[in-house]
Amino acid sequence: MSTSVALPPSVTLTYEDEIALVRLSRPEKRNALNDTTVQGLETVFTSLPDEIKAVVLHGEGDHFSAGLDLSELTIRDMAQSIAHSRSWHRIFQLIEFGKCPVVAVLHGAVIGGGIELAAACHIRVAEKSAYYGLPEGMRGIFVGGGGSVRLPRLFGAHRMADMMLTGRTYDAEDGQRIGVSNYLVEKGEGLEKGRALAKRIANNAPLTNFAVTHVLPRIVDAGNEAGYLTESLIAAICSTDPTAQDRLRAFLEGRAAKVVHS
């Protein structure tokens, strides 16, 4: 597969079989997210080849992302600021509801817009160097990249309010405990863990991955009765797909591995 997509220097893209590796490459700015970088992410997630089944998103240097490049907020009026926030919403939704699941590998600063970006991904692997913060209260601003919707679902509105009001930060262990990350690994091991998870995800039935990333969040947002009906519909769609039928037969015939805890 060709990676000839035109990207800014702050975003790099490589393919490894069915996996795409997307890297924030602005280490001199702690991978702060400026418009060019966020638009580069838009280009990546709207042009993934059909052969790509999972994505790993990570940061170059010592940090995942220190958040929004604040220099960009000083040059906008109110209407422009609203449009800017809405553009982040649109682009981050391309990650959350895109072609395939996304694994974020977090290390160093995961601050402000950085944690908003991480929350748009489906699985988060944190190295023990990771730390999380929402310093918006100190800056006189408010989250604008979807954080007020996604972050309370991860660790609660009360914790988010505390972080924004007091500047409280969480280290990697605390982040794992409260639900920011799904996996916690030693320093330097995050990318390899992210690759391994992405490869496992890529081996799933495509319809199941779609159901988990596109349908499950909508069920959570729906009322109970609508959720039950939606679940029945997507369960039937998945289980009657030829790929699923082949896999079910393989299990029943003893040709597929059983679930064990390792």
State the shape. globular
Stretches with pLDDT under 50, minimum 5 residues: none
Radius of gyration: 19 Å
Q: Write down the domain tally.
A: 2
Going by CATH, the architecture of the largest domain would be: Alpha-Beta Complex
Total of DSSP H or I helical runs spanning 4+ residues: 11
**Secondary-structure-derived class:** alpha/beta
Q: Mean of residue pLDDT?
A: 94
Residues in helices, as a percent range: 40-55%
CATH topology of the largest domain: 2-enoyl-CoA Hydratase, Chain A, domain 1
Task: Characterise the protein shown here.
This protein has about 260 residues and is an alpha/beta fold. It folds into 2 domains: about 10-200, 2-enoyl-CoA Hydratase, Chain A, domain 1; about 205-250, Lyase 2-enoyl-coa Hydratase, Chain  A, domain 2, CATH 1.10.12.10. Helices cover about 45% and strands about 15% of the residues. The protein is built from 11 helices and 9 strands. It has helices spanning about 35-45, 80-95, 115-120, 135-140, 145-155, 155-165, 170-180, 190-200, 205-220, 225-240, 240-250; strands at about 10-15, 20-25, 55-60, 100-105, 110, 125, 130-135, 170, 185. The chain has a 6-stranded mixed beta sheet with strand order 1-2-3-4-6-9, sandwiched between helices. Strand 1 and strand 2 form a beta hairpin. Helix 3 (about 115-120) crosses helix 5 (about 145-155), helix 5 packs across helix 6 and helix 9 (about 205-220) runs antiparallel to helix 10. The longest helix is centred in the first third of the chain and has 19 residues, at about 80-95. The protein is globular and about 60 Å long.
